[in-house]
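**Folding the chain**
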Amino acid sequence: ESAPRDVVAFLGIMELVAGPYLVVATGSELIGYIDGDKPVYRMTRSDVIPFVKSFSHLTPLQASDNAKFVEMLKSMVSIPELYFSANYDLTHTMQRLQGTGPQFLNAPLITRADSRFVWNHNLLKSLESKTEALKFVMPIMCGFVFISQCTINGTTFKYTLVSRRSNRRTGARLYSRGGDTSGNVSNYVETEQIVEAPGHLCSYVITRGSIPLLWNQLPDLAMKPKATLSTDDNGAHMVTLASHMTDELAHYNRRVTIVNLINRTGSEGALEKNFNRYLQANEANLKKHGEVFYEFFDFHHECKNMQWHHLTKLIARLDRERQLCGYFQCSRSGRYDGGLEQRGVFRVNCIDCLDRTNVVKSLLCRETLQDQLRALRILGPSEKIESFENFMEIFKDAWIGNADSISIQYAGTGALKTDFTRTGRRSRRGAFNDFLNSSRRWLRNNFMDGFRQDAHYLFHGLYKPQNYKVTPYTSPFEQGKPGLRSVVPPVFAIIGFAMTVVCSLMPSEEFPMIYVLFWAVFTAANLAYIINNGSDFVDKPKLLKPKVD
């Protein structure tokens, strides 16, 4: 019998080869209080508990596979940024919550949560018909939460930043791109900035998500693999874009402004042209559901040679639309103040929806925050938020933390370009740190992300393990083992390099220069083969083959 253990939250149940496993959170830390006195916690420890007491019923192959699935499951509930609250619905924005009635607010959290942002949604499926059991299950949100008390001009208020990662079309950076015909896109995140001031609540929502077309960018050892648009069979691109934009319009008051930050040239340029083209082709259809506006800004071109002050041109161009969208504000009693609702949303993207995207989102949120603090009379009519250094440090910490968390979850490393968020300008030291993070991304995306993508497939229910009772048993891992073609060239390249070094260091009378040249050419030939066939040498998912749609 196992020893008793403390449990702070039940996440649900998952079926693996050996049978069902109970997934629980066993540790947490308090992040802060939201909407007054409602505590928000971050998971710090988790456990995966088998229902069975022994594994003697498994064959060696089944036991090996089951152990790999358990490792994947543990990796998905060990993500550092998983949050929960027993008193506040983290999956909904303030505006959505304030616009609901008593019946909704009195329902169990798990039944009224926004299904898009419940990270453990798949673990709850076996409990859907068990109403009593659902009372003990906690909706978990993946993303980022920052809560801090602030003071400006003698007024104390609470500044909160919440980012909600969608559980649809999740995965590792280069294995999860674009959208699908159901309207889901990769790396979709809803970010909400909240101000709790004496007597009032304010919030502002902004989203990000991959370009809603069918495209991929599979790893192939290149630092930046080519983005490839799929063949448009039966209007699939139109359906994908229309489905996604219709959902955005429905969720955000029938007004969406797309801010596209990708490059104008290369494979990114081809994506930009097609994104714009399909938007124009869908214009008449989308008008039935609301208004969509498109703003293109070639971030890298405009800000090259450290000219990051050019971002002010973009923010100025977007200011009218930002003012039209407005923000949400209500009294602490929940009563709307003069109809202050957010009437639209900015949807920001670059190729990854990480670094460039986070910079622009933070600038737009800073402008809106300044408007909110002026409206609440915390700032004077002509005062600027940048004048208050102590608060700006808090603001920058929040957005740098947000950038790093979302980047780690998707790309495996911290964010790039955070020096601009910190200082308002680009630095050579920041550029060097970006080089280091880009190198780490390259290593992880090429040699570690196959496992990470499989973990997403398993956790979100896209792949269901075969139960040990089903015969004949087929292991998904046996089919994905590397062949000689992906093993021999690297081995030959290492041998060739070693022999080149040895021959060059030995006396020339024993190893003439022709030996050095032979082994150098031998090494170069193997390296050239590896580079030209890079996709054969990366870590690939084994549970499912990556698909464009």
